[in-house]
Input
Amino acid sequence: MVKTVELLNTLKDLTEEEFVDFKWHLKVEGLEGYQTIKESQLQNAERQDTVDLMVKTYQLPGAVEATKKILEMISRNDLLQKLPCFKNLEDRMCMKHDKPLELFCKTDQTCVCTLCTSSDHKTHEFVPMKEEYERQKAELGKTEAEIQEMIQKRRLKIQEIKHSVDLSKEAADREKAEGVQVFTALKESVERSLNELIETTEEKQRTTEKQAEDFIKELEQEISELKKRSSEVEKLSHSEDHLHFLQNFPSLKAAPPTKDWTEVSVRPPSYKGTVVKAVAQLEETLSKQMKKLLAEAELKRVQQYAVNVTLDPDTAYPKLILSDDGKQVHHGDVKKNLPDNLERFSDCGNVLGKQSFSSGRFYFEVQVKEKTDWDLGVARESINRKGKIILIPQKGFWAIWLRNGNNYKALTGFLNDLSLESRPQKVGVFVDYEEGLVSFYDVDAAALIYSFTGCSFTEKLYPYFSPGPNYGGKNSAPLIISPVNQTA
Output
C-alpha cells in the first residue's frame, strides 16, 4: 500500500522525542474535528502501529490530514512534502487492495475498487464512482436550494416576529399615552377638589377669626370707656367739694352706653362631614370624567383602523342618488331605469360599500347631520337584496337606525330602544371580525351608542347604508362618508 508506506516513512524521520510528542497530540483533544485515540493503544505503539491506528480511526486520507496538522504543531513543516496528496476521488486508494477507488457500492454507501466488487461486494449493487458523484452532487444542489428556502422562510419569520414586536410597541406606547392622559386628568381633578376643600375650610376659619376680632375690638373699646368712667368715679369719690360732687354725680351714676354681651359668643363652624361631602362630590366628578376620558380613548383606539369606504352604484336602490366620488347618498324620489342585477336592492332604499372585509378590524364614519331617518351598519355578502328585507343579524344585517328624528333603535330582532344624551351628528362604525364585534359611536360626543357582541362572521362583510325617504324634503340631507380625524 504505497501511500501508507509514505505515511510510515514520514514518521520514521521524526526523532524519538518528536515521535512521543506526535503521539501525545493524537490522544488529547488538540486536533479539532478528529477523534482522539485511546492512550492505552498509543502507549507502546511503534511507528507502524501508530500509522495503523490512524488509518483505522481516520481512514487513509484523514490520517494524512491529521499527520499534516501535527507536523505543523511540532514544527516539522519540512516533512509535509513527503506526505501523499489526495487531489480528487479518483486518486484515493483502496485500503485493502491499494488500488484506485473507481466504484461506489450503493448497498454499503462506500467507495470501492474493482477487486472489492468481485470479493466483499460481489452481491451488492454498485455504480461508477463519478456517476454517483454527479448524482449526489445534483442532490446536494437540491439540498442547498432547500436549505436556502428554509433560511428565507426563517428570515421572513424573523421579520414577522419583529413586525409583531413593533406593532406591540406601538400599541403599548399608545396605551401608555392614553393612560397618562386619563390619569393626569383624574389627578388634576383630585388636586382641584383638595384645593377647594382646603380653601372652603380656611375661608370658614377666616370668617370665624374676623368675627372674633371684631367682638374683641368692640369689647376692648368698651373696657377702655369703662376704665375712663371708673377713673372719674374714683376721682369724684375723693372730692370734698359738696357742690362739685352733687353737680357731677348724676352723670357718673348713669350706666355707660355698652352692649349686652350675655348672648354674644363666637361659635366655631362645623366641619363635620366636609371631607365626606367633598369626597362624594369628587367621586361623582371622577366617575363622569373617567367615563368620558375612557370613551374618548376607546374612540381613538378604533379610529386607528379607519378604512376608505365608497358606495357601490351596482348595489344601489334605483331611487337613490350617489355622488360622483361615491361618498354621499340621498333619496331622489324618482326611480331610475337601471339593470336589475343580482347585487342591486330592488325594493328597499339601501346601498352597500364597494369594499369588503373578511378578517381583522375596520372603521368608518358617516355624517348624519340634519336627517330624520337613516340606517347604518354592515351586511354579509349573501343577504337578500330583492323584495322585503328584515334588518336583523339572523338575516345578515348588523345595524342601527333613526326614525322620526329622535327614535333610535338597535336592530337586534327586538328593536331595542337606544337612550342617547344627544343626537349624533356623525356616527362611527367599528368591526372586529375575529372578535365578532360591531360597535357604533357618537363621534362628536366620543360616546358608545351600541355594540353587537358574540357575532359569528363567516362571509365577507360590506358597509351598509340607507338614507331613508325624503318625506317631502324633511329628510333630504345626504348620508356622507367622512374622512376620519384620528387626532381629534
Summary: The mean pLDDT is 88. The two ends are 90 Å apart (CA to CA). The longest helix spans residues 129-237.
